Amino acid sequence: MLLTSISYAVAALFTSVSATKYSEYILAPNHRSVTPFVLTAVSGDVENPDALLTDVHNSHGVVFGANSSITLDFGINIGGTVDFSVRAVSGADEYVGFTFTESSMWISPYQCDSASQALYDSPLWFKVPSKGQYIAEKKRQRGGFRYLSIWHNGTGSVTLTDLHVNFTASPEMEDLRDYPGYFNSDSEKLNRVWYAGAYTNQLCSMDPAYGNALGIPGTDWYYNATISKGTSVLIDGAKRDRLVWPGDIAISGPSIFVSTNSLDGTRNGIDSLFVLQDADGRLPWAGSPFTRPGRFSFSFTYHLYTLLDLYYYYLYTGDLAYLQSYWGQHKFALAWSLATIDSSGLANVTSTNDWLRSGMGGHNVEANAIFYHTIEVSLKLAGAVGDSSVVDTWTTAMAGIKKAINERLWDPAQNLFFDNDVNKTASAVHPQDGNSWVVVAGVVDAERADAISTALAARWVRPYGAPAPEAGATISPFASGCEVQAHYLSGNPERAVDLIEFMWADFMLDDPRMTNSSFIEGYSTNGDLHYAPYDNDARVSHAHGWATGPTSALTFFGAGLQVTSALGKTWLVQPRLGSLGRVTAGFETSLGEFSASWNSAPTNSITGEFKTPAGTSGTLILPGGNPNLVVSGRQGRVAPSSTMDGDLVFTDLVGGWYKVCSS
């Protein structure tokens, strides 16, 4: 059976009667008791090896003889604690070991993939002196695995029954399949990517009492560090690092909003970062215990990401009291950053830490573009809390950064920005992250944004993805998620669709080494599942929230549904179908439902409908400038306010239902 067929079958198995739209794509299980789907390997003397599978009802159980094993496939990446019963045991001093791996590359009865500093992790051993039920301690939970091997290494025999995994991810969700958000299009690849991104973030939401204590051994491994308050926290990776990293939240948070809208973990992650703020205003590179007394690792960009995380959380929840509780610390942190701006007009970065890319420092384009965007959204937060004292200083800084980036770092020969102004030779790095961020942040004009999109697409390495030369021979789903946004925002949605389809769907989902359900942390430009920052390939995470950028991008930019102020009190609807024939999407805030459904039409225009909550207002921008398009709502026909770059612009629309058709 093909891997794609297995994952579809698993999704069908999990599907229940539900009002959730497009629930057939949701990968999360119906219940927290999860059983394996396929038997993939048998070694030694094993009777009834398939007895533990979901669809097999064999009350006799699996009988393991001396030094024997089986490997089971859950069909998708899952996480949790093993729970099983011993029906019979013969022999003295009998043990059963369980090994876990996300990727099929590391299937072995004798060792796990790696979630520690070790090359491989040891089996999780149970001594089974008698029959009965055996349950792993919660600190022995494995956050991410698709394949589970069971090894009996004794000389007697052991009979196992009733094996299941207690699914521990997303503990804040009573119903793991309760998705208020949805997405669908005429591209099955995009549909699968959207939902795999949503599921990846569910795997990356965990009970904060079971984080990475750091320095854990590969033998007798465990997770027992409390990394935040609350019942759930959003972490970087399900298997590892199981820590709070603000850069990861900046990608995974928006994708959670448009899918499950389960934002408790985001809030608890933000809390865990602000509590660690240094006396000089700096925010930590990562949460506890990575940051702890006597150790404060700093990253200029991740310091800013924490501020962006706060903005996104307020934008999606409208929790003004929460924003106000951190406003002083937010301003303090931004004041530290502003003090790094030198006579060039740019921040002079002195920390090399970032997302494990190389060359961070000096007048770096990525850092300064993120800085520009952070100031811009911080001005919106200042308006929300009624603080006008910062407006002049922050606005002036933004203008200086924008001017300096364009004047000092642009390379007209490559139609890309240099990484910094220290090396502007022909062999200098033109980074994926920085060149994507200048478009996302609005630092460049439309002509330059289009040129950047063209140049970035020309570097694609098919069939693997978009390269990040600032990290060596690396493809980074984190940086590539920003590139997807850049293609949309530069007016090239067909490139965004193409990149998502071949990189995320064809490779990151369908390559047989992947989980077919969640997204990998990073890999090599030659397709090897080697991530340059690590020496150990078994350590790479296959469920990493920072790889889920397409989920929010497809909703915000493909379907064109964006909230522009808290809870969507104001909104922007601007669909960009690119090569798609149709797209539909929706999400909710406490104000109500936001939804849109579009179909491509002749002359580069679209038809369809959208809905926003009553009491809100916003803008509609339709591509193509087709004068025959008619926009009508409950109050009748609406005339365009203006045209912009050939698009029709409708402003001051009141919340409600609107239809777009051709006259």
Taking Cα atoms only, what radius of gyration do you get, to the nearest Å? 25 Å
The SS-based structural class is: alpha+beta
Distance from first to last alpha carbon: 49 Å
Largest sheet: 10 strands, antiparallel
Looking at CATH, which topology of the largest domain would you report?
A: Glycosyltransferase
Helicity, as a percent range? 25-40%
Mean pLDDT: 96
Quaternary organisation: single chain
Proper CATH architecture of the largest domain: Alpha/alpha barrel
Shape: globular
CATH class of the largest domain: Mainly Alpha
Beta-strand content = 15-25%
Low-confidence stretches: none
Overview in brief:
It contains 13 helices and 28 strands. The chain has 663 residues and is an alpha+beta fold.
Write up this protein.
The chain has 663 residues and is α+β, with helices and mostly antiparallel strands. The protein folds into three domains: 137 residues, Jelly Rolls, CATH 2.60.120.260; 374 residues, Glycosyltransferase (Alpha/alpha barrel), CATH 1.50.10; 104 residues, Maltose phosphorylase, domain 3 (Sandwich). The protein is built from 13 helices and 28 strands. Strands 1, 2, 3, 4, 5, 6, 7, 8, 9 and 10 form a ten-stranded antiparallel sheet that branches. It has a seven-stranded antiparallel sheet with strand order 11-20-21-22-28-24-25, with helices on one face. Strand 24 and strand 25 form a beta hairpin. It is globular and about 80 Å long. The protein starts with a helix and ends with a strand.
